[in-house]
Each structure stands twice: as structure tokens, then as C-alpha cells.
Design goal:
Elements: H1 10-16, E1 42-51, H2 60-65, E2 82-92, E3 97-101, H3 108-115, E4 123-128, E5 131-132, E6 141-144, H4 156-167, H5 174-187, H6 203-215, E7 221-224, H7 233-248, E8 252-256, H8 262-266, E9 270-275, E10 278-283, H9 285-294, H10 305-313, H11 321-333, H12 336-353, H13 358-362, H14 371-390, H15 393-409, H16 420-458, H17 464-494, H18 500-527, H19 531-547, H20 558-561, H21 568-580, E11 585-588, E12 601-605, H22 607-614, H23 620-644
Parallel strand pairs: 3-8, 3-9, 6-7, 7-8
Antiparallel strand pairs: 1-2, 1-4, 4-5, 9-10, 11-12
The structure holds adenosine-5'-triphosphate.
């Protein structure tokens, strides 16, 4: 069996405790975990991770003068891989906090990514109680990433409850799930902010909510990437106390940390120090000071041990040769082979204590909840989140005031030749504003949500298709609510067409056009990962579609004219013009329909001739079908694009 949870510094840390934790771990079986053991040791042996080097920035010389394919050396040698982890070995036991330290870029996050099975290792082994790390361990390992990404409009309790509903098995009664959420709130001292929207809570509360989200499934191993970054020292100590208590309850805690205070540093059970992906130390925090002293680097009197450690390893590139030499000496001096041997021995011992149960492997379920549960919970969450984000009083006021302003500008237009051009102008303006609004909102909401989906999906919360269906179905009514308010006001104030038989189809087409714009925005947001690039692309695409939409230019050259066939503006404009002018237009001598009325009065220009003058083509049914197609194909394409991208962070 693994050692009893009782790390060397646990009692010392307990005296610092100012909080009382009531950890009541649920039985693993209840939570749908596949690990038979409640205590898990994670060991890793000779981990190496290599990544392809970043592509060289395009240079003027190579692209325009020297020509394609040329390089400065003139040879096309295969690029050498960049090694970001080199022979890293170690282990963390239940009841222990293993701290990963090292300067920025030393490989701490990469190591945590690998230990959580989210990053691919080039060679080496990671074992859970002696068994190779695999997908079935997903639910027993929780990974609290550095960034606290949530739906900001949800409250802390909502966030935890939705996570519980998505990650805890269907077989667990709702009451038990709610109780688990309450436990987590108490455990992490989140009572004060439980009903506050996440966007209004403090950094420390956000971090604890992030940890709470991962703790709901009662994981056996907790990995945390820089949990104290951005927190003041008191909040950092309080957070470390929480981790201490979690470790004392039998969990295995591995955390990366930059420069802990003396109190926090002393609270770690084990330390693994990295520099440039190499190990420079592994052992107890106290032992580290002895070790570095023995190499001629004692801690100066009155100096914080962890600050000293970082001072030894941080090098200003190209400036400090002495520091670079010192770092290299520390790397060369560490005996990675002995660390590897120890890790291997631990793994072998555990392998004998925890033989792998083959039937367990076969019965491993990828998801804890059914498709229907995922769909239901995700729809509820998307609705609640978008309701808070979109249904703000400010948004309603904006829509109503805009409708009012537009109504005043185009106030009470009469039926007749005089107002034909004004009416067509109003039709086009409506679409432009609201389609842009939905396109840009959809595309901007997506990149942040995309990171959240990757985070949640990597812990096995739900299927991507369930998320996508839930998002697109539940947000649609929200998306069209604001344009609805606007049209209700502007349409009647402007008197576009006084017949209800024209108003309702007009409203439906305009709202459908808004949804088509949203689809295009979703597609761009899912396809282009870089926000800045996506913004440029979205602007260019939407302007090109607007310009070819039929209002500004009727005769567009073929080489650019094809864009109009993808433009929701065109189909919506053509359909709405036909709906708005559902009767023959009376000539009034105003000259609004020159060539048709010829300045005469009383003659009614036939409506289909008016359509020709305004450039409206195709039947209403055809144009509406095209809008449907764009809405559906845009969403499907966004889904496919999202599937293609493996990791929202771009890490491998
Ligand atoms: N996918 C990747 N492609 C190229 N380089 C990468 C990739 N992932 C990480 N790196 C590089 O590997 C090194 C280690 O990165 P990592 O994020 O693990 O460091 P870190 O110690 O966590 O840094 P910090 O403390 O700043 O978060 C860095 O130089 C980083 O640029």
C-alpha cells in the first residue's frame, strides 16, 4: 500500500490553519471513477518533451528579393526539435504537496500538462499507482489551470452546480449533487461570494472557484498551475492552507509556484526545481538549502530561501555570463539518473501493490452523464449565461432608443412613389446594423468560450456536439430579442407597411438574417484562433457582403460579385423589399420612381416593376431558404472547425 497521508510539514501547516475544512470524500464508485484506490501516487520517469521550433518570421529578403525557397544558408536542413523537458523524474504521494519551482520558461506548465495527460510526451513514462497514465485516469486527476476561465455572468454557485450536473454520474441523486456543491463552497470558504456573478469576485475567490470546480468530482490527484499568481501574500498563504488540508485528507497535490513566501515554501513536502527543462533539485525544501550550500551557494542571512533559489537560476539572456555559468553548473551537477532510478523503483513497487484490473479497463466510461443530460444542462447554462449577458437593461434601452431614433428619421412615410427609396434605405439599414451586431458578438464570444470548452472537455465533461447544439439552440431566442424590440418600434414609427400581413413576414426575415449573421460570426470565431486576425477577417468579410448585398451597387463585376451569393444581406434585402412593397406603388409626381412614373400622378407602378428598380430578385421563398441555408451551413462549418482544433491554447 502507499504510505499513509502524513507529510513532514503537515502538522506545522496545520498550526497555520485559520480555516476549518470539512472534507467528506465521496466513494470513488459513486463518482464514477475507475480507480479502485482512494490513495494515488503519481510517478514519472525520464520524461522528455520535444516540440517543433516555431516557424521563422517571414523576411522581406527571402520572400520578395531572394525568392521563395531560399534561405540564408542556402540549405534546406530539417529543423531541429526544441527540447522543453529533459529527463525529468519524480513522484508525489497521497498526503503530500509536491512543488514545482523554476524560472519562467523552465517547463513547469509543460510538466503539469503531461502529468494531466493533456500534453504528449516524446519519451518516458507517467504512472498512476504503477499503471501507465491513460484516459481512464481522467476523472481521478484534476488540473487547475493557471487562467481562471468561466462564464463570467454565472454566479459561483451556478458554476459549481452546472459542473456537478455535468461531471457527477446520472445515478447520483440531485440532492447529493447539491450537497456536494455546498460542501465545496464551505470547504473553500466561498460562502460570502456564492451568489455573486464570477465577474465581480476577487482574484483569490476566482482561484478558489477554479479549484472547487475541479474538486467536485473528488479527484485523488490535484495538479495546479501557479495557483498563487496574482494573489497578495495573505491570500496566497490562505490558498496554500487549503491545499495543505486537501493533501492531509489523502489527496496528492502537485503545484507549480514562482516565488513562494518563506511560510509557503516551508509548507511543501517536496520540491522539484527545473531550469531550462532540466532537473536541478528534487527533495525536501530544507534539503534544497543544504544542497545548494554544499555547491557553494548558501542562503544569505535574512534572505528568503525561495528567492535565493530563483536568484541562482534566473539569467538575463546575453547579459549575465556568470549567472549562465552557474545555472549550467547546477544543471550538470544534478544526478538525474539517480532520480530516475528512485522513480522507477517506486513505480515498480506500486505496480505490485495495485495490479491492473482488466475488467475495469473494459468498463471504463468516457462520459459520466448521458447525452441527454449533457444537452439539458448545457442548454440551461447557455440560456442563463446569455440571458445575463444579453438581457441587460442597457441593451434593451439601446435597442429601444435606436428603434426610436430610426423611427424619427424615417417618421411616418407615406405609401407612394415619394418614399420608395427611403423605405428601401430603411430596410437595408436594419439589416446592416443587426447583422453586424450578431456577427461580431458571436465571433467575439467564441474565442473565450472556446478555451473554456477545451478545459471542460479535457476533464471529460461533455461531448462537443452536445455543447454546440445547446449553444446554438438556446442562444438563438436571446440573440433575436433585441432586434425584435428595435423592429417593433422602428417599423411602426416609420410606417414601412401598415399591413400586419407584411409586418410579420418582414420581422421573421430580418430576425432570420440576424441568425445567419451569427452563424458566420461563429464560423469565423471557431476557425481563426488569433483574435486580432479574426477581427480583421470578420470586418473584411462583413463589409464585402454588405457592399455586394444589392443596395449600394447593383452591377457588381464577376470577380467580386460571387461574394453576394454568400451574403445574408442580399437575400434578406431582396425578400424584405418584396414584403414591404406588397402593393402597386402610387405615382405622386415627386420623381421618386423616375422612368416608371415619369412625373405623372395617379398612375400606380406595378410592384414587380418596383422590385426591378430596387434590384430585388428571386421569390421571397427562395431568399428565405437561402437565409436558412446560410444559418445552418455556417453553424455546421463552425462545429467542424471547432472539432479540428485540438487545443484552444495552441499547446501540444
Ligand atoms: N507548444 C510549444 N511550442 C514551442 N515551445 C513551447 C511549447 N510549449 C512550451 N514551449 C516552451 O517551453 C518552455 C517551457 O514552457 P512552460 O510554459 O512549461 O514554462 P513555465 O515554467 O511554466 O513558465 P511560466 O512560469 O512562465 O509559466 C518555454 O520556453 C516555452 O516557450
Amino acid at each position: 500500500m502507499t504510505p499513509a497521508p502524513n507529510g513532514p510539514s503537515s502538522s506545522a501547516a496545520a498550526t497555520m490553519e485559520d480555516i476549518e475544512l470539512s472534507l467528506t470524500p465521496s466513494p470513488s464508485s459513486l463518482l464514477g471513477e475507475s480507480d479502485a484506490s482512494d490513495h494515488v501516487t503519481i510517478s514519472f520517469h525520464k520524461l522528455i518533451k520535444q516540440v517543433p521550433p516555431p516557424p521563422p518570421p517571414p523576411s522581406l529578403l527571402s520572400s520578395s528579393i531572394a525568392g521563395p525557397g531560399s534561405s540564408s544558408s542556402g540549405s534546406a536542413a530539417a529543423p531541429t526539435m526544441k527540447q522543453i523537458l529533459s529527463n525529468v523524474s519524480g513522484s508525489a504521494n497521497p498526503g503530500e504537496i509536491l512543488a514545482l519551482m523554476g524560472p519562467s520558461g523552465s517547463g513547469k506548465t509543460t510538466l503539469l500538462d503531461c502529468l494531466s495527460n493533456r500534453g504528449i510526451i516524446s519519451s518516458g513514462t507517467i504512472s498512476i499507482n504503477g499503471a501507465p497514465l491513460s484516459k481512464r485516469h481522467k476523472r481521478s486527476i484534476a488540473y487547475v489551470m493557471q487562467s481562471d476561465i468561466f462564464f463570467d455572468h454565472l454566479t459561483v454557485r451556478d458554476q459549481l452546480l452546472y459542473t456537478a450536473l455535468l461531471r457527477l454520474p446520472d445515478s447520483l441523486p440531485l440532492k447529493a449533487k447539491v450537497a456536494r456543491v455546498d460542501d465545496t463552497i464551505n470547504q473553500l470558504r466561498l460562502q460570502k461570494c456564492a451568489n455573486t456573478p464570477i465577474m465581480l469576485i476577487s482574484g483569490g475567490e476566482k482561484k478558489r472557484t477554479n479549484i472547487g470546480t475541479e474538486l467536485l468530482t473528488d479527484p485523488r490527484v490535484l495538479l495546479l498551475d501557479e495557483p498563487t499568481s496574482g494573489l497578495d501574500s495573505t491570500s496566497a498563504v490562505a490558498l496554500m492552507n487549503v491545499l495543505r488540508t486537501l493533501a492531509d485528507s489523502g489527496k496528492t497535490v502537485v503545484t507549480s509556484i514562482h516565488q513562494p513566501s518563506s511560510a509557503v515554501f516551508a509548507g511543501f513536502d517536496k520540491l522539484l526545481v527545473l531550469a531550462d527543462g532540466f532537473m536541478v533539485y528534487s527533495g525536501t525544501p530544507a534539503g534544497s538549502m543544504e544542497y545548494f550550500s554544499s555547491l557553494g551557494y548558501p542562503v544569505p542571512a535574512g534572505y528568503n530561501a525561495s528567492d535565493h533559489l530563483m536568484d541562482l537560476l534566473v539569467v538575463d539572456a546575453g547579459v549575465d555570463e556568470e549567472a549562465a555559468g552557474r545555472k549550467q553548473k547546477l544543471i550538470d551537477h544534478w544526478d538525474s539518473e539517480t532520480s530516475a532510478k528512485t522513480a522507477l523503483e517506486i513505480t515498480e513497487k506500486l505496480k505490485q501493490s495495485f495490479p491492473v484490473d482488466e475488467s475495469e479497463l473494459q468498463h471504463y466510461k468516457k462520459w459520466n452523464t448521458s447525452y441527454l443530460t449533457q444537452l439539458r444542462v448545457l442548454m440551461h447554462r447557455a440560456m442563463r449565461n446569455s440571458r445575463s449577458a444579453i438581457f441587460t437593461p442597457l441593451n434593451f434601452i439601446k435597442s429601444a432608443v435606436l428603434g426610436f431614433i430610426v423611427g424619427l428619421v424615417w417618421f411616418q412615410m407615406e405609401d407612394g412613389e415619394k418614399f420608395v427609396q427611403d423605405k428601401s434605405g430603411l430596410v437595408f439599414f436594419n439589416m446592416t446594423f443587426w447583422v453586424f451586431d450578431s456577427l461580431f458578438t458571436a465571433f467575439m464570444s467564441f474565442p473565450s468560450e472556446r478555451d473554456l470548452i477545451f478545459k471542460e472537455r479535457s476533464s471529460g465533461s461533455y461531448r462537443l456536439s452536445a455543447y454546440f447544439i445547446a449553444k446554438t439552440v438556446s442562444e438563438a431566442p436571446m440573440r433575436i430579442a433585441l432586434p425584435f424590440v428595435y423592429i417593433m418600434i422602428s417599423y411602426w414609427m416609420a410606417n414601412l407597411n401598415a399591413h400586419l400581413s407584411a409586418f410579420f413576414p418582414f420581422l421573421a426575415v430580418q430576425l432570420l438574417c440576424v441568425l445567419a449573421g451569427e452563424s458566420i460570426g461563429l464560423f469565423i470565431g471557431a476557425t481563426v484562433l488569433d483574435m486580432e486576425k479574426a477581427m480583421v477577417i470578420a470586418t473584411l468579410i462583413s463589409l464585402a457582403m454588405m457592399l455586394t448585398g444589392g443596395f449600394f451597387a447593383e452591377h457588381v463585376e464577376d470577380y467580386v460579385g460571387w461574394v453576394q451569393y454568400l451574403s445574408p444581406f442580399k437575400y434578406s434585402y431582396h425578400a424584405c423589399i418584396q414584403i414591404a412593397f406588397d402593393e402597386d406603388v402610387k405615382c405622386d409626381g415627386s420623381g421618386g420612381l423616375d422612368g416608371l412614373c415619369d412625373g405623372s400622378e395617379g398612375y400606380a407602378a406595378r410592384d414587380d416593376v418596383v422590385f426591378g428598380v430596387l434590384g430585388a430578385e428571386g421569390s421571397v421563398a427562395f431568399n428565405v431558404s437561402m437565409l436558412f441555408l446560410i444559418s445552418i451551413i455556417g453553424r455546421l462549418a463552425a462545429y467542424v472547425a471547432l472539432r479540428r482544433v485540438k487545443d484552444g491554447t495552441g499547446r501540444v
